[in-house]
Amino acid sequence: MWAPTLIAALVTLGYTRASDNKFPDGFLMGCGTASYQVEGAWNEDGKGENIWDHMFHEHPEYGTNGDNGDVACDSYHKYKEDVQMLKALNVDVYRFSISWPRILPTGDVDIINQPGIDYYNKLINELLDNGIQPMVTMYHWDLPQALQYIGGWTNGLMADYFVEYARVLFENFGDRVKWWITFNEPAMVVKGYASKDRAPSQPAPGVGDYLAAHTLLRAHGRVYRLYHQQYRAAQNGSVGISLDVQGSAPLTNSTEDVVAADRYQQFEAGHFAHPIFSQEGDYPAIMRQRVDANSKREGRPRSRLPIFTPEEVKYIRGAADFFGLNHYWTDFVTDEVNATSPSKAGDTGATAVRNGLHSWGFRNILNWIVNEYPGYSIFVTENGVETSTGLNDIDRIQYYKEYLTELQQAVNIDKVPVIGYIAWSLMDNLEWTEGFTRKFGLYEVDFNSPNRTRTAKDSAAFMAKIFLSKKVPEDDGCLS
Ligand SMILES: *[C@@H]1O[C@H](CO)[C@@H](O)[C@H](O)[C@H]1NC(C)=O
Ligand SMILES: *[C@@H]1O[C@H](CO)[C@@H](O)[C@H](O)[C@H]1NC(C)=O
Ligand SMILES: *[C@@H]1O[C@H](CO)[C@@H](O)[C@H](O)[C@H]1NC(C)=O
Ligand SMILES: *[C@@H]1O[C@H](CO)[C@@H](O)[C@H](O)[C@H]1NC(C)=O
């Protein structure tokens, strides 16, 4: 009699072996976009200018073909159609971002732009009416230009402004939004303070990017604490951050390259992940050591890598309910660098000389995260591929099939606690300085038509099946 009882007990406890090609119950799936990449309506209904509007209007040559986000996919007017596309895809979740200057045109709370609030209320309600959960990114790169005039993220006070902005979001949308992401890819955000062709286009490499990162980590920690102290009890949501973590594999099997690949990952992922997700908090020791030493060698009285107070280390450490992971490819890293000094690349002392689409890199990175930063659930908040095959995008289907197969193995075999997956992107959109030439969408958008007509690609039907069944078809090919 013990056997059926034991089996029943195991079933109750959830110990049944999931079939390897099915995601566990409750696993959330969906698609993502970002405000500047899709909304358009750049100066409508009281929206303020953002740093990308400003950069592309001043320097049209920074965008491929002079493309910019003035109209983009026109989602500001076509959001209902977007929601119908999401519904056709059977998504559980839609990840989108809120444009800070659409809500706060000056960046501060002196003016709260009601039409901006209304737009996001309409979008959120339309999603919920269609059975889709909203996942909101608070900052997907479109800083109010008014705040850039006072230094943007290099100004430590920006953390205060971000807290006030977040409060407006929790107050207005927190009754219905249960998934919050403070920042999308902070490593990319701070590149705008190290190079020219990325907003805000204020190059101070090896200085400005470290300062911006420092402010941003403090801003993230404070918003997480704000939510938990003032909103969590009533709103019961989760707050995380989306970090871009590509695979970092040694270019050769030499000891130097193996060590360099680790070091590279600490400078790329660890810069943001270590202060939040490691047991000890603060920047990775290898960063502290190398940037301090280089700064000294350069004759500086202080390190280019700013120093957290003990209080800051404490409130930033553990400031996340989940680890948001954006993953696309695997880098191959060598122990050599040609960068000029000062720069983050020079401090890293390693270079990603090439990259490739290798689905094994996805499973590897999921295991790496869970080993490096134990105790957190992972939500894959971006994964996808650019293709130029139009509507018959068999290469995108192949990519998703392989990457999702590796994800399932990580979840079902390695027991990595992944709770959801967002495909990038719902539709073709403005790929920043690369304009409309790089296409990541499940839907095609006709950027030559004033109607911005959307058409489902073959991959849309493929993903709609997976989103419904939570099963990935058996793999029958190989990208790598
Ligand atoms: C809070 O959310 C969790 C899921 O994240 C759910 O299990 C729980 O029932 C919710 N609690 C309340 C009080 O709504
Ligand atoms: C490194 O060594 C492994 C195992 O010997 C081998 O499979 C792999 O191809 C080698 N990689 C390189 C880049 O040489
Ligand atoms: C550095 O520059 C040299 C000479 O141009 C080149 O051969 C080498 O591949 C470069 N190394 C890296 C890591 O980019
Ligand atoms: C605009 O697009 C929608 C679907 O995307 C279509 O139903 C409508 O007919 C189009 N209108 C024009 C004028 O092309």
Question: What's the quick description here?
Answer:
The protein has 480 residues and is an alpha/beta fold. Helix content is 42%, strand content 14%. The chain has one domain: TIM Barrel (Alpha-Beta Barrel), CATH 3.20.20.80.
Could you walk me through the main structural features you see in this protein, from its secondary elements to its overall organization?
By secondary structure, the protein is of the alpha/beta class. The protein has one domain: Glycosidases (TIM Barrel, Alpha-Beta Barrel), CATH 3.20.20. Helix content is 42%, strand content 14%. It is built from 17 helices and 13 strands. The strands form 3 sheets. Strands 1-2-3-4-5-7-10-11 form an 8-stranded parallel barrel. A 3-stranded mixed β-sheet has the order 6-8-9. It has a two-stranded antiparallel sheet with strand order 12-13. Helix 16 runs parallel beside helix 17 (458-469). It is globular. The structure holds 2-acetamido-2-deoxy-beta-D-glucopyranose (4 copies). One 2-acetamido-2-deoxy-beta-D-glucopyranose is lined by residues 334, 336-338, 351, 353.
